[in-house]
Amino acid sequence: MTAPIAIRRLNAADPDFARHLDHLLSWESVSDDAVNQRVLDIIQAVRERGDAAVVEFTQRFDGVAASSMADLILPRERLELALTRISDEQRQALETAATRVRSYHEKQKQESWTYTEADGTVLGQQVTPLDRAGLYVPGGKASYPSSVLMNAIPAKVAGVQEVVMVVPTPRGEINEIVLAAACVAGVDRVFTIGGAQAVAALAYGTESVLQVDKIVGPGNIYVATAKRHVFGQVGIDMIAGPSEILVVCDGGTDPDWIAMDLFSQAEHDEDAQSILVSPDAGFLDRVAASIEKLLPTMERAEIIRTSLQNRGALILVADQAQACQVANRIAPEHLELSVADPQAWLPHIRHAGAIFMGRYTAEALGDYCAGPNHVLPTSGTARFSSPLGVYDFQKRSSIIFCSADGASELGRTASVLARGESLTAHARSAEYRIKGE
């Protein structure tokens, strides 16, 4: 008989609650010295030897018999072929999801703007897309077509001229639905490479891989470590930690639904985090019973069990105010407000990657097809970070166009401030344009 699952219980009224919560939330996404050095060596090799190094690492790490980079390039026709190889049901789901994701992100697109002051001076902001973006997609048996849509579509909506996808094919395993998603999302170029070598190729360029301006997309510890090292040479989306869900429930939702919502994150991996907060102690007990009942029915039961026992929790709070306080302290990647009137709660939520409102809005809908992006800040970074969006693929340039009168008037102010900083050339440059001087 399987042992009962030992998911921790916390009470926000406990004097040591803050300490226990901090311990529960602690997560260090740190590469060890061996991984760090290996990644640095790979990056250096790609910088020095370009395609040859990428081919060599792909042969060694992925077991792919490639003789040159030409063997690691997939033409657009191959993506279109993948779209015909998947089932009609899968194709319809991809196209529906893509349409919804595109529609949502089109509303995020920022436009250039200017305004004219009384003296004719024009000030404003010019918004332009990045020239080229790189999308990392895990490969092999792992299938993440949703990540392709969520990363590539905002870039295309932003107007990025070229979206380059890298996806490893360990031992030659090609995932057709991932390639089909790339076709639907409008990916321009695909290389069947992965790991730190793919990140280095995107960041620095090789004979075959053109350098990109930003790298987005999830990957393993080698990919995350490489993204850390190339940041500054290129932009990156984020260094993501394990997936998280925080469910706040008033006790009125079916406990089986809530248990499955917790499972939906716990099944990602053993380090994922699922937390339930409720002011109803009896409801916490009912959810715990649902967890015990439903866990044996799950394909990834052992992963879920480990995740819930190591990093999960059922937290009792006094009321709505304390529930919101705990939620803001956690700043979760995914927050479900499974309550009677979520609109009343929303003004009190300050930190969350995505907020799922009401009893019917399962987090899983956001992962695939609701429309908002599923690339979200983790590990409490929702305190200062936002979901991936069109704005991540646009940049802003300030516009300053002074009239003669404007330059004269501003020149007097600039002169005083520049001389106060002992920057005489600054002052004189402004003073040359002051009328009558």
Automatic annotation (TrEMBL):
Any GO molecular function: zinc ion binding
Cofactor binding notes = Binds 1 zinc ion per subunit.
Q: What class of enzyme is it?
A: oxidoreductase
Catalytic residues, chain numbering:
333-334
**What UniProt keywords are attached to this protein's entry?**
Amino-acid biosynthesis, Histidine biosynthesis, Metal-binding, NAD, Oxidoreductase, Zinc
What taxonomic ancestry is recorded? Answer: Bacteria, Pseudomonadati, Pseudomonadota, Gammaproteobacteria, Pseudomonadales
Gene Ontology CC terms:
cytosol
Binding residues for substrate, per the UniProt record? 243, 265, 268, 334, 367, 421, 426
PANTHER family, per database record: HISTIDINE BIOSYNTHESIS TRIFUNCTIONAL PROTEIN, HISTIDINOL DEHYDROGENASE HDH
Q: In which pathway does it act?
A: Amino-acid biosynthesis; L-histidine biosynthesis; L-histidine from 5-phospho-alpha-D-ribose 1-diphosphate: step 9/9
The signal sequence is none
Instruction: Show the InterPro entries listed in the entry.
Output: Ald_DH/histidinol_DH, Histidinol_DH_CS, Histidinol_DH_monofunct, Hstdl_DH
Q: Name one GO biological process term.
A: L-histidine biosynthetic process
Q: What is this protein called?
A: Histidinol dehydrogenase
Instruction: Write down the CDD domains for this protein, in alphabetical order.
Output: Histidinol_dh
User: Per the UniProt record, which EC number(s) apply here?
Assistant: 1.1.1.23
What is the similarity comment for this entry?
Belongs to the histidinol dehydrogenase family.
Residues that hold Zn(2+) according to the record? 265, 268, 367, 426
Q: Does the keyword Oxidoreductase apply?
A: yes
Provide the cofactor list for this protein.
Zn(2+)
